[in-house]
User: Fold this.
Amino acid sequence: FEGFVEYLKANDGKLVASTIPSNVYEIFYAWLRKEYGVEFSTLPFDSAADTSMAVQNGSAHFSVGLTSVDNARIQAGEIKLIAALGDTRWPVAPDVPTLQESGYPDVMVATILGIGLPKGTPEAIRQKWESALEKVLQKEDIVDKLVNLSTEPAFKKGDEFKDYLNELDTAFKTMLGK
Assistant:
């Protein structure tokens, strides 16, 4: 990652990052600009697959998000993953540290999936949902499929999930200087 930052600095104002507007990409890019005083332009796309393809075909110099279609490219050395931005390492690149492990404890960018129930949902129904989801995420074939989609399966119950969302919100605010 430090080599990447040096590359950004050496090419200040000359590089292009592929992005999905109004996405977590933009939070990370804002942090890079603020933290290192660098500038680069962004090239917007509608999907993470397109942002990655832009890096591969030379339309962009770098991108934040990679998708499951990139797992084989990472393993083949066609794309170099320089840091995991979430709080865990990528399964297809277990030797690549997270930014938190690399000395950036306040940097975490993650997209998450969760299921919400309406306020006032009876406790028995909430518990039934939690139990079912927890059981599904214990099935090896399901976990393998999620990992192959570059999704890190992690079950969190209501309050634990709420705490994680608050932690992510705090990281985003810290990265944005708020």
Q: What stands out?
A: The two ends are 24 Å apart (CA to CA). The first helix runs from residue 2 to 10. The mean pLDDT is 87.
